[in-house]
Amino acid sequence: MNFYIVDVFAESKYAGNQLAVLCGAGVADLSDSEMLQIAREINYSETTFIGSPVMQNGGYNLRIFTPKKELPFAGHPTLGTAFVLQKEIVREKVDRIILNLAVGQIPVTFNYRNESPDVLWMRQNSPTFGQTLAAEPVASALDLELDEIDSRFPIQEVSTGVPFIIVPLKTIASLKKSRVNLEKYFELVNPREAKEILIFSPETYSEINDLSVRVFCPLLGIPEDPATGSANGCLAGYLAEHSYFGQNSVDVKVEQGYEIDRPSLLLLKSQKNGGKIEVLVGGKVVMVAQGEFV
Fold first, then answer.
1. What does DSSP say about strands 2-8 and 276-292: parallel, antiparallel, or unpaired?
2. DSSP string across 35-77
3. H or E stretch including 236?
4. pLDDT > 70: what percent of the chain?
């Protein structure tokens, strides 16, 4: 089996979110438990497995594993795998690659600079909006004071395939100091479908960005994720649904990963039309390494 290591939502090597992509004849022979073992061996946020270099129903079959379990969808693995497919399997310019995931087919479109992909965009499923949460237990789980949460907007469960709890904060100081209190966190998420938390601030490290984000995923074996496409897709839908910027459309730059020394940049677009919201998440992918499993 061949493997490729890429950095996703990265402006340069050794930033963004690391991803290992496995492909080759041996992938089809792997059991679920072997895929999980490999994901644990690599120990990135996610590892992906391309089932076959041949398309099925117009797309490529893909499975995604964290060190703890398989996911039906995840953002940076979707972009990173599409990049590897274009570079190493398709090996020619294409406008779009479709990935067959448990949540359905996810298209990824390519913008090119010379012969290489520049920004990749994935169209996520239209978001669904779940329960709103009281601020007190959320603040307690994040080791924050109650008045650090922006009460103008709800704390809400949102999903484009994987649910996240979206938490609006007032300042980047609160974002930086937030820490997961595991006991309070488990009390918060145990009765809920959403087990992961995204917090965001309108203040940023870089003045060219619009929001700063952190994502906590302890139950996935990821204390903090450096760049989370699925969570930011939920955020894009949330921003449009609640007119965070005073309108029902969004086109913003989001920074993530600064607190764990993996600076990342995600591009979010969303548009609310009637009761449906269209969500696009984009970013760059950088090849770092390649090799083979023996």
1. antiparallel
2. HHHHHHHH-SSEEEEE--SS-BTTBEEEEEE-SS-EES--HHH
3. helix 229-241
4. 100
**Beta bridge partner(s), residue 269:** 251, 280
Per-residue confidence (pLDDT) for residue 221, from 0 to 100? 87
> 128-162 burial by CB neighbour count: b if 16+ within 10 A, else e?
ebbeebebeebbbbbebeeebbbeebbbbbbbbbb
**Quick check: 60 and 97 in contact, CB under 8 A?**
yes
Residue 194's contacts (CB-CB under 8 Å, 6 or more residues apart) are: 130, 157, 158, 159, 163, 164, 165
Residue reference for tokens 């939502």: 9
So what CATH class is 128-282? alpha beta
Give the three-class secondary structure for 149.
strand
Split at pLDDT 50, 70, 90, the class of 99 is: very high
Residue 158 pLDDT level (bands cut at 50, 70, 90): very high
Structure tokens at 116: 């290489």
CATH annotation of 2-123+284-292: 3.10.310.10
Q: Which helix (H) or strand (E) holds 186?
A: helix 182-189
Gyration radius from the chain CA atoms: 18
CA distance 175 to 259: 9
Residue 226 CA: distances (Å) to CA of 46, 207, 258: 12, 19, 8
**CATH 3.10.310.10 occupies which residues in the chain?**
2-123+284-292, 128-282
Residue type, 175: L
The kind and range of the H/E element at 18 are strand 17-23
Catalytic residues: 46
Q: Provide φ and ψ at 133, rounded to 5°.
A: -115, 150
Residue 35 identity (one-letter amino acid): M
